[in-house]
User: Fold these one by one.
Assistant:
Number 1:
Amino acid sequence: MIQGLWIKNFRNFSEATVQFSPKVNIFLGENGQGKTNLLEALFVLTRGQSFRYADNENLIYKGSQEAFLKAKALHGDLDYDLQLTILKSKKNHLLNGKKATFTDLSFRFPNVIFSPESLAAIKEGADQRRQLVDDLLVSFNPRNGDLISDFRKALKTRNKVLKNYLSGLADKFETIRVVESLNPLFLKLATDLTWQRLEALRAILEDLNQAMNSISKNQNVDISVEYVISGENALKMSYSDVENSLQKRVLELSDAELASGSSLVGPQKHDIVFLYDQNDSRFYCSQGQQRALILSFKMAQIVYHRRVHGTYPALLLDDVLSELDSGKRDSLIRFLSDINTQIFITTTDFNLPDSMRSEDCTVIKVHEGQIEGAHT
């Protein structure tokens, strides 16, 4: 549970302090005032990255060189101080004064984000669908946070070598030699990350179907998922199958990688396809059905986390209620009402259901990057 948050030079907040309810927290205000920025501060502080695909410079208040976030939190019976310094080149996380990793944060402060971006993931690019699954990985096993981070570092290094060749900063022979020296670690991390994605998707599939049938009120809807590697569904692949597939593609695409100046093999190129009654939901489903699928995916992630870890993750909802029709909104509200966890909601309208209006609900008004008041 996050008890309170202090912000300095983050997004459109020059400085702000706010205390939270252990149950429901409503960030209320007009569009463009900073409600989502406040929610994003919580997410970045506890997950290490933004859910809005922003680089560090975008997170820093205009004209400033760095941003600071601090929070007081509880995990079980233990108190924690979280601190984050955001520079243009890096982020520095501290937990009780000591350097913290993605795994440290994810294990102690798990959360699930519902946002308009995530609800649009099916019809948008593969990046958004990969992000959905990588968020799931942390629920599946908190150590996957470090795996994701390690893979991104290896990918960045490999891409830099290939880009240098394309830019004429290195010759072909030297580039091939360096890439071949990087490949063993890169392919090991790529295989491990791909395998963890497959394991997580297989584990959540039953919960996904149950959630979808609950939302759609149609017990006959069949939901399945394909994890696509080079045009092939890999959901039933073994670890060695994945490993062999990636190694083969590296050899096949070595010349193409040199020509493009980037890595063309690995989980950063994979796609996830949601099937609705065996049809590709990108083309077969309405927008409402697509949103219901992603909403079901998030709900299944929460249920899965509770079953595996014994506790619910905190829930962050960024203007999601207004994005849903009344039926899906009612289904989500009923689901949230039964969850004993801390919830943060951004909204322009405080017409929330009675189940969310209680003595445990705090309303925090946001206006032009300022906290104008909080009341229960």
Number 2:
Amino acid sequence: MLNKKQLLEERAKLFDNCKAIEAVCQEDGRDMTADERATIENNLTAIDDLDSKIALAERIAAKAAEIGNSGDRGGKLDVKVINEPQREDPKRGFSDIRDMFESVINGGKTGQVDNRLKPLAAVGSDEHSTFADPFGGFLIPEQLLPGVMELAPEADPTAGRVTNIRMNVSTVKINARVDKNHSSSVSGGLTVARESETGTGTSSRQKYEQVTLDAHDLVGVAYITERLIEQSPASIVDLINAGFAQEFASKQLNEKLTGTGASEPEGILNADCLVTVAKETNQTADTINGDNLVKMRARSYNFGNSIWMANHDAYPQLAKAHLGGTNSDSQLYQHSMVEGRPDSLLGRPIVYSEYCETLGDKGDIYLCDWSQYLWGTLVGGLRSRESMHVRFLERERTLQVYTCNDGRAWWSAALTPVNGSNTLSPFVTLAARA
């Protein structure tokens, strides 16, 4: 006999593991990694399997008690007769497929047909078949599979790349050195010079500024009836919580790219340090060519730590991007032959995102070193709470999910190099090609 206690203990351990992963991500103020999401999915699948085993253990125990109470362990088994099942019930009153099969078997042994099977009997014919009883069997009722089909949003490619700031209060100021002009000093103002043995040298000093993160609330609210909470075969609260988590991730990625900085994070499209590479002379509208990409590469600060991000519509242009050579053209785009590894452009990964602007607009392609972007999250991360009091008379429960954060590039300007006419930046995009 299945040990129900052990099954429940194993189920609790798997569920606690899921909650622990979620708590760590909330505490760190970050999205789940691919491995963490896979672990949770595997745990939930295992929990569904344990639920089936627990239900079977309960039915075995109930049947054992029924047989024990009857005092008759031999001869005929009494066939359980129930009331006519409701027609709208897709399971026709059966708890699962095993329950239906047992009813069919018992009916064959005793000659007494379970009332739940009667609506499933089809009109007979002259052959043995599955649609006519007693010449074949009973139709199998509909089955409700656990879980909900859903389309997960695109993963945030900046997760794990930005500089995360743990905020204990809603406003955090970070000291920064003003060192983005290297024409005279690379250290924010200090200089050195060759002097004679008795020379005193020329004094110099550094200049500083402050970068401010001002966390703002991001909130989601949903109302759920108590009946739905009580009667839904899947936990509606968990489903809504999971949906909100996806909405928050989607909203925050969009803000990292296009946020205005007013009561929300400042996206790189509006950052003061963004470098915008001009289009080529007479360039056709809604195109990206090899010269565009090479010039973006030339303006990138710390290219070896950068990634490309582009709208999905840009792929046909990027896949064909090349540079003309003396003997042959040089392709700039490399398709990955390894599962899970992104394609690359000029040797760096490229990720496609629906949150980049449409092809031809400024922001349809970026080259970014996200380590130069600050993302501050107030202690607690993504949190949720529920109340039965807000809509008590309507018999509804209120679910609220919220977080408090801010983000921005910490560079106040693009870098002016010691030599060269072009500035450099960790965030580069291409001008509009209308």
Number 3:
Amino acid sequence: MVYSIIRRADSTLKTGAPYVRVKSKIFYWYALFVLMYVGLTLLPAPDAKMLAKYHVSATGLRLLDFTLIVPIVVIWLIAFYGYNKLHAYSQLIKNNKDGKQVLKLSHGLLAFAVGLPLSSIFGATLSLIALHHKSFTAGATIISNYTGLLYPLIAFIFISMGARGLSEISKSRPSAHALNLVVLTVIIIGVVFCNLIARAHHNLHIAYHLSYSLVMLTLAIPYMYMWFLGLYAAVEIYLYSRKVAGIVYRRSWNQLALGLGSIILVSILLEYLNTLSGWLTSLSLPGLLLLLYVLLLLFASAFIVVALGTKKLMKIEEV
């Protein structure tokens, strides 16, 4: 689904449509996603068990949901904004040798911009179905987990392709030392991740509803592969930034590399927490809300850094 939307958006942009029209299309997609997510989150009746567990009223729970919805949709807006700026920049330099590679990077950001709301809407829909059909709880969890893996994997495949192309053009391929450092980092992160899964063996039915072997083969390994792609792409973009002319250009590409690396780190943190679902369910409401707000703040900060980098690139070309 995410890939087909990327292709449709790309074909629309290649038709020569004015920039304002493209921007409007992006806004309409965003507005539609927000309306769907707000409706799926706030309109259904609250779960009675959740109200009893956290000792809140239906109205109070709705207010708490709203405080989470606002930063979530802001993150989506920032992701769309970052994609919009980077794609516009790629169109301005499309005749340059690095134009095609920047376009691939923009496809990666589009996968994030579309994947974030789609996965949230899909998850909210599945949760709503599971709320009324308890037998579907396991299926909803499994589908949500794989959906949450799909869009960032597609995003970082595109970003990795673009970063590799830029590094080849600038002849700034990472050294063996840099490659070894990234590999070692991913191995350490992966070992900790697998250890958390193993320790939570008795709680796997809460987080995954899958056997240990399936979790390792179909979720842990793809996530570690994605983390490697993302971190290595961030290194390649950083090295590319050192080759481009102009301090402002270098800073812009540095910000983009930093933002992408930060997105990977937040993704790692989220998956670590996903293995601790048993602990999360034991948190008090204030503790759980604090954790969610911190995660949203970290996620928003990462996308803000990416958006600032793409905005600066666009401004440079407009000058």
Number 4:
Amino acid sequence: MGNYHVNANFKEKSGLVETNLNLISFKEDDSHIVYAAALDLSGYGKTEEEAIESFKEALEEFVRYTMAKNTIYIELARLGWNVSGKDKKVAHPPSFETLQEKNPQFQHMIESVPHTVIRQPMRIPQYA
């Protein structure tokens, strides 16, 4: 499995917050899947390239929708992210170990499915 990078750039008036995101790339039956447990988002396709593109679209839609609803940091907190800052929000994803502890299905997948883990920088619009 390739070591692919997913770049998601979101430009807002108030700037961007940079964080890191662990992506899991694996194959199931005849499909390639890229999964971000920290966001519970995935992309899929017949090839890894299609899965990466599908994931990028899912990530962009997640950020676009939650920004439009003004709920991005609420949703990230619900997903276990550490959200802090009064004037300017900062968000850090849960550790890989925490994700495994809190999600038995994810833990099982990590233990039983051949996969690649990619640590990927991610940019999230920052509120002023």
